[in-house]
Amino acid sequence: MTEQITEQAAGTAADSATPRTPTPVDEVAEAHFRGMLDLSPALRIEVGAPGRDDELDDYSPGGWAAHDDLAARTLAALGAAESASRAAGTFDETDAVTADALRERLGLTRELHSIGADASAFNVLASPVQEIREFFDLVPTASAEDWEANASRLRAVSQALAGHRESLLAARAGGRSPARVQVQAVIEQARAAAEAGGHFDRFVAGASADRPGPADISSGLQAELADAAGSARTAYARFADFLAQQMLPDAREDDAVGREEYALHSRQFLGAAVDLDETYEWGLELLASIDAEQQEIAEALFPGSSVTETMAKLDADPERRIHGLDALRTWMQETADEATAALTGTHFDIPEQVRAIECMVLEDGTGGIYYTPPTSDFSRPGRMWWSVPSGVDSFSAWQERTTVYHEGVPGHHLQLGAAVMMESRLNAWRRQGVWVSGHGEGWALYAERLMDELGFLSDPGDRFGMLDSQRLRAARVCVDIGVHCRKHAPASVGGGIWDREKAWRFLTDNVAMERSFLDFELKRYLGWPGQAPSYSVGQRIWQQIRDAVRAREERDGRVFSLRDFHTRALGLGSVGLSTLQKALVEGF
Fold first, then answer.
1. 334: CB partners within 8 A, 6+ apart
2. Which of 203, 231, 512, 550 is the residue whose CA sits 20 to 30 A from 262?
3. Rounded CA gap, 127 and 120, in Å?
4. DSSP state letter for 388
5. Can you give the pLDDT at residue 12?
6. Are strands 369-372 and 321-323 parallel, antiparallel or unpaired?
7. For 372, phi and psi rounded to 5 degrees?
């Protein structure tokens, strides 16, 4: 293929400002992204695209079939476009990456649809029950018109949940019942969303005329919003009843999906096929090596202390504690801004627009920390969110500094913000229409280790916290593959075949996390196969790619530039790791 590609560089700082003449392949990708926007109001809100304000995503069997049909039409159009570009002599490296990424992503979408894995998706973190609720964290709220649209969206919650209900019933009829532990947990989540004074009521309280921000919010609109929030709460209450009465009795006891299906999910989250047995053994070895690093720091900090004792002593150090939500937000913002300033122009090219990140703290939350990208025009900046559980008001700076680097710069914010900046060079699908967990989360873990390499975690407590973060990710490689592929468990948890009980013991032996949070984490792994390992496995592949590029540069007598590597790699946008490997190491 190489001889048919023109020499247009991909990902250099210079050509990021040079407009690219769209090709037939670009046009196919753009059309696919428009199709995605048509099918997903949530995606429209995420990227700031216009569209109907009274819709939520369609989670019915017909909705999933529409996504499959879009993938099929795009793949058919891609073949013709690629042939036309090659014949015209315009097929370049950017086209090669787009075509490879489209085939990998959409081909897998169709494979998962063919077994019903899309419509039957159901877990405690990333399925329609959570996505519908979290949709309202991102909707515009600046004007009366925004709030009128939000009232319509709240009334659409009932239809969205009805579609999800239809898909679950169809999946059950086809032999794909959800696992009991997931159903029980999601019932609790749905009932919480249905509570008076809960998520939806707090959302519409933001439209109160006596609160700063909203303008021209009439009493009539406030009443309409309160009623619409009640409608959403009622929809969640009824959905909880449906789960309890119709899904729970037939829920399956086995948490494992089996090796064959797991391999598909692993590819879904990595964008690459890996040897699952070798990866499982690597996970065990990685966990042991991280434990050794932590023990070394523990001995240096507090001689004679274990890893667990060291954590307790770090937590007890008043200089390493943050008290209050306002102080937490300030600390997050300062830490993120300092990292951006230090890395700009040294190890990274960071565009001006991407140097701003907004740190957000949500009260009465789940405990999760996550990132949402900027809109295409940066009218809404990239945001780092900390969803703080009710009653929690003290935080460990030593444990969370690495999290700020993970979510901010050089992690997700740099990665996704830089992609949004490339409007003149990458098509919209490459910039905003594709997310591969192994690429994105792998990059964020790579960023954590990189900050250690660059000296930003020179404080032993901060470095200990980074290792604690990486330890969790290594442990779940073992648990996730172990349970879902029904592998033999280590002797430390009793041997035999992995199951939920062995997984819990393994996690409690190896992860320093409050037990209620850890319980949620385990449910997440059991219900979302393949996603949790994508962090560490993705980091591993990123590091392997960097090592391969360095070796090639040195073999050719060139000086390896970390800054150039990062610029070129991030210039590709989010792609599967197999596509990344081809683009940076093997060539097309």
1. none
2. 512
3. 9
4. P
5. 36
6. unpaired
7. -120, 135
Asked whether 280 and 478 are in contact (CB, 8 A), the reply is yes
C-alpha to C-alpha distance for 437 and 531, rounded to whole angstroms: 7
Compute the residue count for the chain: 588
Structure tokens at 531: 């996603």
Contacting residues for 118 by C-beta, under 8 A, at least 6 apart: 64, 67, 68, 109, 112
**Residue 213: predicted pLDDT:** 52
Assigned token pair, 315: 């937590």
The whole-angstrom separation of Cα 428 and Cα 131 is 23
Contacts of 308 by beta carbon, 8 Å cutoff, 6+ apart: 512
Which two three-digit tokens encode residue 65?
Answer: 């079939």
Res 290: pLDDT? 97
d(CA 145, CA 133): 21
The predicted pLDDT at position 215 comes to 55
Q: How far is CA 211 from each of CA 208, 215, 368, 454, 506, rounded to the nearest angstrom?
A: 6, 10, 27, 44, 48
Would you list the domain boundaries of the chain? 2-114, 128-253, 263-533
Token reading at 218 = 């009439």
**Spatial distance between the Cα atoms of 204 and 391, rounded to a whole number of angstroms:** 22
DSSP state of 586: I
Please state the pTM of the whole predicted model.
Answer: 0.92
Which two tokens mark 197? 């004074």
Report the SS3 class of residue 395.
Answer: strand
Collapse the DSSP code of 130 into the 3-class scheme (helix H, G, I; strand E, B; otherwise coil) and give the result.
helix
CB 382 within 8 A of CB 413: yes
Cα–Cα dist 120/178, whole Å: 7
Burial grade of 54 (CB within 10 A; 0-12, 13-18, 19 or more): middle
Task: Give the C-alpha separation, 268 to 498, whole Å.
Answer: 23
Helix residue ranges per DSSP H, 61-92 = 61-88
Which residues on adjacent β-strands are paired with residue 348?
Answer: 344
Provide the token pair at 461.
Answer: 């407590």
CA distances from 175 to 115, 485, 499 (A): 10, 19, 21
Whole-angstrom Cα distance, residue 153 to residue 41? 10
Query: What is the pLDDT, as a whole number, of residue 375?
Result: 86
- Could you tell me the two tokens for 403? 């999290």
For residues 120 and 64, what is the distance between their CA atoms, to the nearest angstrom? 10
Under 8 Å CB-to-CB from 288, ≥6 apart: which residues? none
CA 518 from chain centre, in angstroms, equals: 19
Q: What is the mean pLDDT of each run of 10 residues along the chain (588 residues)?
A: 33 53 95 98 92 94 98 97 90 96 98 98 96 93 93 98 98 97 97 95 82 68 96 98 98 97 98 98 98 97 96 95 96 96 93 93 80 88 89 92 96 91 90 94 97 96 96 97 98 97 97 88 97 98 98 95 95 95 92
Q: CA–CA distance from 132 to each of 38, 186, 193 (Å)?
A: 17, 13, 11
CA distance 575 to 279: 21
Burial of 7 (0-12, 13-18, 19+ CB in 10 A): exposed
Residue 394 backbone dihedrals phi, psi, to 5 degrees:
-135, 135
Give the amino acid at 565: F
